[in-house]
Write a structure and sequence with these properties.
Elements: H1 15-30, H2 32-35, E1 61-63, E2 68-75, H3 76-80, E3 89-94, E4 104-109, E5 115-120, E6 125-131, E7 149-150, E8 156-159, E9 176-179, E10 191-193, E11 205-207, E12 213-216, E13 224-229, H4 237-240, E14 244-251, E15 261-267, E16 281-283, E17 289-291, E18 310-317, E19 323-329, E20 334-339, E21 344-349, E22 354-355, E23 369-374, E24 380-384, E25 391-397, E26 407-414, E27 420-426, E28 433-439, E29 447-453, H5 460-466
Parallel strand pairs: 22-26
Antiparallel strand pairs: 1-26, 2-29, 3-4, 4-5, 5-6, 7-8, 8-9, 9-10, 11-12, 12-13, 13-14, 14-15, 15-21, 16-17, 18-19, 19-20, 20-21, 23-24, 24-25, 25-26, 27-28, 28-29
């Protein structure tokens, strides 16, 4: 069995990659999104929820600043009249690199007949660029697309949030897919199954600066993984996913669920992606063989830390040059922060974190953290998996960057009956613009909402008292 690397040791790359990462970092620092900051962090934390159904579905959020505004840019009832749209809009990303970077917004359909849609933010024309040829349970179906992530080489990743329990017959799902040409005409879109990864119920995907890919299994008693490509500088998915090693995260000896402290990565495969002896390997109904990413990390030799229903992942670059991986764990109302350089896991936010509006622990007001997002200043936003009326988006304040939030505050509250917010995404090129989906409303009209923030003229005193990092409405 290969040597089990520490978080600090794993992912060290050659000088070419380091030079490339430095160049990317300098370019990002010079971009408007990183140079200008964001007005989104200037808000007065909401003290309560908006009532279900009390706001129009076209403008469904109670926002925490009079300088924020919202508008519908995609509505499913309009879309269905023109193209395939199975609804349940989920995660967002944009074309973050390459020609016309930032022009196109991507989202996916988390349904029994999944699909991918692309919105041209210049023309505001939305197209379904790919859809499953059949609905579940057909063997050629694709279901529950959830993830959306732009790759370092300029393609689009999504994956299925569906994988059977070990005691049940293996399903054909739990797969990762790459659209190799996401800006192409819909008739020419190329979707490829990247079979080197274990099968899991996917949601969050995230790349670190060394181009390691992190992913989760979205179920109770599940795990967090890392894929380390043999070709981290690849310019095509065919090369990136040709060979690589998958690891599961372990804290301590792995026996304590949602533990914090020192962590290591435990290998499940060799460097070519071949399962190590003892790993659980299954054949799906289509005859494809893969590691069972749910059963294998429960074995003593591969034991990983257990989280209860992980959802989204985001990576933030730190002032000291390190990176922090944030993980939302829904069932127990927690968000974790993993310092990738130091190899430590901390509890970032929970119901014990102070509510900016009351000065007291948030308690049950903070519930079911699901999606995560990062604005141009590096602030973390936490989106709840809750029904409209109690579905909130929280701003988390971590002023010293230690991976433990000092306070959280309600930034927006969703009114739409039967819906939840999904896919909050801050525009990398326009720091005053964000996008969020209103998913599976009772009306059946999923929406993509664009939230914009203006930059009011403020005195320094206004900035001290209205900036949403915990100084607004705080109590001693």
């Amino acid at each position: 069995m290969p040597v089990r690397p520490s978080l600090n040791d794993q992912g060290k790359r050659n000088m070419t990659l380091k030079q490339r990462s430095l160049a990317i970092g300098l370019a990002l620092a010079a971009s408007p999104a990183f140079a200008a900051g964001t007005p989104f962090s200037h808000f007065t934390p909401l003290a309560g929820d908006v009532g279900a159904g009390t706001l129009p579905e076209a403008a469904p959020y109670r926002l925490s600043s009079p300088h924020f505004s919202q508008t519908t840019i995609v509505a499913r009832d309009v879309a269905q009249a023109r193209r395939f749209d199975s609804g349940s809009y989920d995660m967002h990303t944009a074309n973050e690199t390459g020609p016309d970077a930032g022009r196109y917004l991507f989202t996916v359909f988390e349904t029994g007949q999944a699909g991918i849609q692309r919105t041209d933010l210049r023309t505001m024309i939305t197209a379904t660029i790919w859809s499953s040829p059949a609905a579940a349970p057909a063997l050629n179906s694709h279901v529950a697309f959830d993830a959306s992530r732009w790759t370092p080489w300029g393609s689009f990743l999504t994956a299925e949030e569906s994988w059977s329990d070990p005691a049940a017959p293996a399903s054909p799902y739990g797969r990762l897919f790459e659209v190799t040409n996401p800006l192409a005409d819909p008739a020419d879109i190329n979707l490829v199954h990247r079979a080197i990864l274990p099968r899991v119920a996917h949601e969050g995907l995230a790349f670190d600066r060394d181009n390691n890919l992190y992913f989760i299994d979205e179920r109770n008693d599940s795990h967090l993984f890392k894929f380390v490509s043999v070709n981290p500088d690849a310019t095509r998915g065919d090369d990136y996913f040709a060979a690589g090693q998958t690891f599961v995260l372990r804290v301590g000896d792995g026996t304590v669920a949602e533990a914090t402290g020192a962590a290591t990565w435990i290998p499940l495969t060799d460097v070519n992606g071949v399962a190590l002896p003892g790993a659980v390997v299954v054949a799906d109904p289509n005859g494809l063989v893969a590691i069972d990413g749910r059963a294998t990390p429960k074995l003593p030799a591969f034991r990983g830390i257990r989280f209860d229903r992980q959802e989204d992942l985001e990576i933030k670059s730190l002032k000291d040059g390190g990176q922090m991986l944030f993980v939302a764990a829904t069932t127990n109302h927690k968000v974790f922060a993993i310092d990738l350089a130091r190899g430590t896991v901390k509890l970032f936010a929970s119901q014990n974190t102070r509510d900016m509006a009351t000065g007291q622990p948030a308690g049950s007001a903070f519930k079911n953290p699901d999606n995560l997002a990062i604005d141009a200043e590096g602030n973390i936003y936490i989106v709840e998996d809750q029904p409209g009326g109690v579905a909130d988006i929280w701003f988390a304040s971590d002023e010293n960057g230690d991976g433990v939030a000092e306070a959280i505050g309600k930034w927006a509250s969703l009114s739409t009956a039967g819906a939840e917010s999904s896919g909050l995404y801050f525009d990398r090129f326009r720091p005053n613009v964000a996008y969020v989906n209103v998913q599976h409303p009772a009306s059946g009209v999923d929406r993509t909402i664009m939230i914009s923030a203006s930059c009011p003229a403020e005195t320094s005193q206004d900035q001290d008292h209205q900036r949403g990092h915990g100084k607004a409405r705080d109590k001693d």
